[in-house]
Write a structure and sequence with these properties.
This protein has 223 residues and is of the alpha+beta class. The chain folds into two domains: 77 residues; 125 residues, Acid Proteases (Cathepsin D, subunit A, domain 1, Beta Barrel), CATH 2.40.70. 29% of the residues lie in helices and 33% in strands. Strands 1, 2, 4, 5, 6, 7, 8, 9 and 10 form a nine-stranded mixed sheet that branches. Strands 3-12-11 form a three-stranded antiparallel sheet, with no helix packed on it. α1 packs antiparallel against α2.
């Protein structure tokens, strides 16, 4: 249904929307340039300043990789297998019948707020519309720039965010990456970054079966 197309720049300083990572990159470049100029004059301070700039540049790069690449479900699964920070899904096997409209729908609690979500195997990441995200307290991550997302209606800008807890039936997902789509009444879907955290998922006779790693007691969503 939708896929991440490209990362956009985190903002423009002349518009007062400077991304923290972009600002750190500028600071690192400035330290390298200033340090190089001072070092060319034979001063020891210049070498130290340039070294500090290089270290800051490496730190920015590492942070960018760890935060941005989590949007790729295959990377997240690999990171989880070696004990790195990961999105986790647990709970008992859940069966979801096919709805009359040809989609699989669930009634879930996102950060305790009840809502209806569609399971979409064609979506790269989980997505919430702006009004739903606001109601559930899912705020955009200021350390990640907006993403350009391809939808059925064309390209739109979406804000990366993180869901603290998503619960439906006996399935619980915590620390789940998502994107917030602009406006109200937009798509609210569970994407592949959710499905790949499960032990397995399959479709049998029109029923979607989700098998998490660790079963939990089923809970019924409440308003």
């Amino acid at each position: 249904m939708m896929q991440i197309y490209a990362w956009l720049e985190g903002g423009a300083p002349w518009l007062g929307q400077l991304s923290p990572l972009f600002a750190a990159t500028c600071a690192a470049l400035a330290l390298v340039v200033v340090g190089g100029a001072l070092a060319s004059r034979g001063g020891r301070i210049g070498g130290a300043v340039r070294f500090a700039g290089n270290l800051l540049m490496l730190a920015v790069f590492g942070l960018a990789v760890l935060r941005f690449v989590r949007m790729d479900p295959s990377f997240d699964a690999a990171l989880h297998s070696i004990g790195g920070p990961a999105q986790t899904v647990s709970g008992g096997e859940t069966r979801i019948p096919l709805s009359a409209d040809g989609h699989y729908w669930i009634t879930a609690q996102v950060n305790g707020t009840r809502m209806r979500l569609m399971v979409d195997t064609g979506a790269t990441v989980t997505a919430l519309s702006g009004d739903v995200a606001e109601a559930a307290g899912v705020a955009p991550d200021p350390l990640r720039p907006d993403a350009r997302v391809e939808t059925a209606n064309g390209m739109v800008a979406a804000s990366p965010a993180r869901i603290d807890e998503l619960r439906f039936g006996s399935v619980v997902a915590r620390d789940l990456d998502a994107i917030v789509m602009p406006g109200a009444g937009g798509p609210n879907v569970l994407g592949m970054n959710f499905l790949t955290r499960l032990k397995g998922w399959r479709v049998e006779e029109g029923v979607l079966i989700l098998t998490p790693h660790r079963p939990q007691a089923e809970q019924t969503p409440t308003t």
